[in-house]
Amino acid sequence: MRSLTVLSGGMGGARFLQGLLHAIRTDKLAGADRPDVTVVANTADDIWVHGLKVCPDLDTVMYTLGDGIDLERGWGRRDETWSARDELAAYGVEPTWFGLGDRDIATHLVRTQMLDAGYPLSAVTEALCRRWQPGVRLLPMSDDRVETHVAVTDPTAPSGLRVVHFQEYWVRLRADVPAERLVFVGMDEASPAPGVVEAIMEADVVLLPPSNPVVSVGTILGVPGIRDALRATTAPVVGLSPIVGGHHVRGMAEQMLTAIDVEVSAAGVAGHYGARSGDGVVDGWLVDSSDAALVPQVEALGIACRAVPLMMTDPDATAAMAVAALELVG
Ligand code: GDP
Ligand code: CA
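^ 2-phospho-L-lactate transferase, sequence as received from the core. Prediction below:
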């Protein structure tokens, strides 16, 4: 095996990638060669804050694999300070609910300056990765602006609905109001970033980590051309369930799946992705050991399925998940 491509969100994806790289570096993968890893990251969480372009999923992957992440928070920089945030709050400048750390701001300044100078996001990401050396090739799903917006109930609005940016739903509203509808602004006009389609077409295996199936992997698949590449590649495509025992492990996958009328279960997500032998995008699917009873239901969809421990408790456990995913497709 020479190359692996992973379609990733932020925290779930980054932690999985850590385990995958651990498996590669400790030669836990069958075969002697160490494959190159390309990561296609979700950028539909991106937001402009205080004039700065912030790319949460790209940065979480970059900081996690580059050993700059704050391990407790799971996002942002380690040893962070918050002077700029506090000063902005003292000016009464909104949004106060989205905190940017001082160290993190440097990343956003570099990115925004390069974007202003005309570089596409993919080139900016490559430049930022020169410092962080994440050990993977990190690509944004698109250089175009795509943003997930969430419609929530608001009795004071004429339509009864108010639409907020995904970050406002997640960070300010803490995802504790139902998401009535999702809107992917700019999706139809977006195209895959340079290298994305090639990375899928030329991979030996494509992996869908336990990232949010709607607002992380779902948005990557929504970029015109990416889903077609997954269906066309000769590489097997294997996913790992982010839903265990009928609940998400963290985050807000339950709210997002409910918003698009998909059953919140490991089998529900498998059915949502669908079998490549039908009109879907996966050949194989791992569910957690506790969901072993769902295996026949997933297999009935035409998807190879196995139940293995899927809790990313430490790099060894996560590495074993990556190995199991690759073994599922030979
Ligand atoms: P992102 O989607 O990768 O940006 O990151 P999130 O952290 O928002 O979502 C991660 C998804 O993976 C959520 O739906 C979680 O339920 C799931 N997840 C997080 N940790 C684990 C884990 O240890 N095991 C499994 N199977 N899923 C996880
Ligand atoms: Ca995310």
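The mean pLDDT is 96.
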